[in-house]
Write a structure and sequence with these properties.
By secondary structure, the protein is of the alpha/beta class. The chain contains ten helices and ten strands. The C terminus is likely disordered.
Length: about 240
Amino acid sequence: MLEIKDVTKKYKDVLALDHIHLRIDKGIYALLGPNGAGKSTLMNIITHQLNMTSGEVYWDQQPIQKLKNQFYSILGYAPQQQGLYEEMSGLRFLTYMALLKGIPKNNIKGEVSRVAKLVNMESYLFRKCKTYSGGMKQRILVAQALLGQPQLLLFDEPTAGLDPKERVSLRNVFEKLSKDHILLIATHVVSDVESIADEVIFLKKGKIVSCGSVQELVNQYQVSSLEEVYLKLFEEDEYVASYI
């Protein structure tokens, strides 16, 4: 279980996260909000790439800052930025990431094949990453997050650059993984998570403004869809961005 207790992040006079409390168990948790809501900041704190100003993040009741490498071994993360080694082939990139994760050499070939197949990239592994489309780069980033079958999976805008067919395919992957993993998906695209999320967390200007299952939120706001909940919580011009 992942617990986020009273996490705050300040950048000088800017409050990026304001006393965030979350408890996350197995299943799919969608972190929804417009750009600048604090989604990526929270992701970077959970992955320990960014220090929080105050608060604590726990994995199985132990602070992640004390767990260090033990925590990294159960964590898979696909960031929003497509930071790939452009001259590497997809195969070499995944192999390199598997080595960094400490996967035994005898298991790497099979593990790379497994994750590439999951995201429909097995036919493109021998191409250099610089030749990939935006969607293909995103899929290979998702694949590296799955290496080693980590228990906790974090995805920051995972469907960026994907066409509708690829979005559906990736949602199917997430649904399969949710049976045995914790997935936290940060996005501003409502349709990416409406049909698969066990719980939705709305973040606005660093604060959690509402959370619950899709049905609970729809009932609470007396609307017919999660998109309409988003519309009630955010300004209309922010809502337009959720379809871009």
